[in-house]
Amino acid sequence: MSRIIFCQNLKKDAEGLGFQLYPGEVGKRIYDNISQEAFKNWQQKQTMLINEKKMNMMEPNDRAFLEAAMVAYLFEGKEPEIEGYVPPKK
């Protein structure tokens, strides 16, 4: 059964995540307020960021950077800076 939430990223009602994908308080906030579609969009950007910056997810600083970029993207609408990537015009 799908859960409909008001997605803070897409600014519309949309299908919520099936379960909390990220730990802690940030994860709960994402689960409660971010749709599957918006999270999938973030995951694509996250992959580009990890690859471009050659991040190591065992490295606490890299994880902290990525979490800050994720929160900024999902909740504040800030595109991460990915070299050579131009977000599509809305």
TrEMBL record:
Xref: Pfam families: Iron_traffic
GO biological process: cellular response to oxidative stress
GO molecular function, one term: iron ion binding
One cellular-component annotation, GO: cytosol
InterPro entries xrefs: Fe_traffick_prot_YggX, Fe_traffick_prot_YggX_sf
Top-rank lineage group of the source organism: Bacteria
Keyword Iron assigned: yes
Protein keywords: Iron
Listed PANTHER family: FE(2+)-TRAFFICKING PROTEIN-RELATED (PTHR36965:SF1)
Similarity field: Belongs to the Fe(2+)-trafficking protein family.
Known role: Could be a mediator in iron transactions between iron acquisition and iron-requiring processes, such as synthesis and/or repair of Fe-S clusters in biosynthetic enzymes. Necessary to maintain high levels of aconitase under oxidative stress.
UniProt-recorded name of the protein: Probable Fe(2+)-trafficking protein
Species whose genome carries this gene: Colwellia hornerae
Upper lineage: Bacteria, Pseudomonadati, Pseudomonadota, Gammaproteobacteria, Alteromonadales
